[in-house]
Amino acid sequence: MTSPETKVRSLDDPSVFVDTPATIYDAIPPYPPRTEREAEFYTLREGEMLINIGPQHPSTHGVLRVVLKIDGERIVDLDPVLGYLHRGVEKICENSDWHMVISHCDPLEYIASMFSEYVPVLAAEKLLDVTVPRRAEYIRVLACELNRISSHALFMGWLALDLGGITPILYGFLERDEIVEMLAALTGQRLLFNYMRIGGVNGDLNHEFMSRLGDWMSHALRHIEDSMTLINSNEIFVGRTRGLGRIDRQTALRMCLSGPPLRATGIPYDVRRAHPYSVYPELEFEIPTREEGDSYARYLLHLDEIKQSIHIIDQVLHRLPDGPVMAKLPRLLRPRPGRAWAAIESPRGQYGVYAMSDGTDQPFRLRIHDPSFFNLQAVGLLTPGHLIADIMAIMASLDPIMGGVDK
Amino acid sequence: MTIVSRPWQRLSPAGRVLLPLAAVAGGLGVVFLGGVSSGILPNLWSWVYEALNDNVPLLRFIVAATAVLLFTVPTAFVIIFLEMKVIALQNLRLGPNRQGPWGVLASTLHGFKVLAKEDFTPTGADVPVFTLAPVVVYLASVMSFLVIPFAPGLFAQDMNLALLYFFAVGGLGVVGLMMAGWSSFNKYSLLGALRAAAQIISYEIPLTLSVVGVILLAGTLSLNTIVHQQAGTFLDWYVFRQPLAFVIFFIAATAEGNRTPFDLTEADSEIVAGFATEYSGMRFGFFFFAEYVNVFILSALTVTLFLGGWNAPLDLTPVWQALGAHPGAIDLSGLGVGLLIAVLVVPPILTVLLALPFWMLFTRLRFWQALVIGFLCFNALAGAAVLIWAAFSFDAVMGLLWFLGKTYVFVVIFVWMRATLPRVRIDQLMGFAWKWLLPASLANLFVTALAILIIAQVRG
User: Which terminus of chain B is more exposed, N or C, with fewer CB under 10 A?
Assistant: First the structure.
């Protein structure tokens, strides 16, 4: 080991000293390996090279960085580098009161933020022992299922976009835009709704929302099925996704997968049925599963889930009771000291919050369990041995949202 | 310099254009008068005239090559605009609609934009190779243009080895792509270049083999002759005698032009922009242009080989004759070299002449605005003249129209595929070339050769 005087500052990170001045020819990372795994990964054998996918790359769905070790086109190994979107949401939540938690958690799953604001609300309600009015529960289900469809429609376009098809994403965005517009009429926001409240929702259904919803429901299923025929049985699309990134049930359970990646392996685990919350026990819907566990199965599963969601919305609209949309609650919330675990089925899987309260108006600890993080881990298991083009297909089919992964 | 610069600054912009022009004209007039009076100029003129007349084939080639080179730019603009608009319509978007009517100027403005952008060379790049690569790629595309017969008598060069030349020059493009990928000092570029090399070399084999059937039928490699042999009705087109070859050729041409679903070399969701990742400004513009010129060329070659080139689907000559038009009504070739000089001299003079009344009548118009109007008027007049001329000699113009019409159908098909299909994977791509296209093209070749032999035997 040489003394620090003979070392020079790394070009990549000035706080790190390296033996030789870093040049553009140096391998990444510019610092000496810190762990055995890093040493093994960054040692290149004959014919191998490292290539950096991300943090700014067209198909990493946010700011994920993956260092690939490739041999020609074939991926030998990969090293994910997380944290580019880390904002410390859990810690911020500890310093804000229970109402503020809603808007802090909102952008975590920014494609379907209705879910990421629902969970802390659910946890707080468990700690407060509030009974939410039934109309509010139905409105929550309605908003969540709409958001699930908008997220799934976008997913299917994304998968096609990562495989090189440029049209399906715009068809997906058409549906998403209609839903987002109607949710904007309901909540006032297009992306980060900030609609859920502890004890209910922010506002009752209004006329614009209902008329937009009615318009959309009249053609929703037909439009989605129509636009997805573009890729459903496309020979190239099927050839690239069928049998790709196959997970078996044991591995899926071991990797803590949830949501569509888990159900695509044939395990009908859906929090809406397994650990029912809200008014889901009263609603009639199926949990679609597939047996194959590959990218194509995950893709088809999303289409099935859209159909089930439309079915749920139909029932909600028929059963929607009258009444208030907010429970009577004091302005300053001081939940009992204790712990609560709340989980819901987000479009990406089981979205949970483990909240600890110490009796003050702020959560003592708020641990967010984001399904994207667990689903994303499967990339490391699935991609080695495949080609570079396949990592995009696998990653897109697992559908991670980096806002939730990095928190 | 004050004595010059002060009056110069007092001049209006129009004067700053006109005064130097007047000075140049005066100088030229003095030279002309001196030359004529001393007898040098008539001698020089006759020498130039004779030299041009002696070397008409060379002159024709230079003019044709220049015209082809200039033709590529509007072609690329048109195809880029077409692609933006057609894909937008398929995506249920509006597409470009602000730059000019229907956004027709969008691609032209894109061209100006890339011209104005910074021309960036990355650290560690191999500068000479990096600079040359776009030129090689673009020239390889443009050189392929030389042998394409646009209409009867309208071609840059009639080679008897035109097809061979086409594939040889088209193969040069991959050298440029490799140069770009290697010299960029970027791993994405390198991957893209290696993909390009593997893909284009693999697909060149079925591409060439599928054409061999046509060559056997036509008995020549000259594209002009091949087109002439497809004259008659549309049933004489080679697509009906070589349907399999047509399909193979079109698929392989898609791969050759790096178009979706075979656009792996610039797969934006995998390797960012492939070989063009590190390019910016007009260097990137050259790659961009070359791609669209390639689309046009491959469509044109498909049309030439399989769809009768500039032949009309049905013989329409009786219809034209009934309308009073017949080929060769006006023969401009009698003007000889004078035609070339007229083409050089007439446009600027007419532009200025047409601009003058606008300038004088409308005081608010700046001189350059009047010039633009004059230029547009001249173009309208020229277009009308060309149309009138075309009405009397349908042969070339109708041929060109048929050719361009058929070619743009294929261009739209290329665009259509881009909007519809996802991208294949590299192993599927190579497997498809070697396992399916190559055996199919060999089988096609075998069957064609056998059929020709049998027919020759039967006919004795």
Answer: C
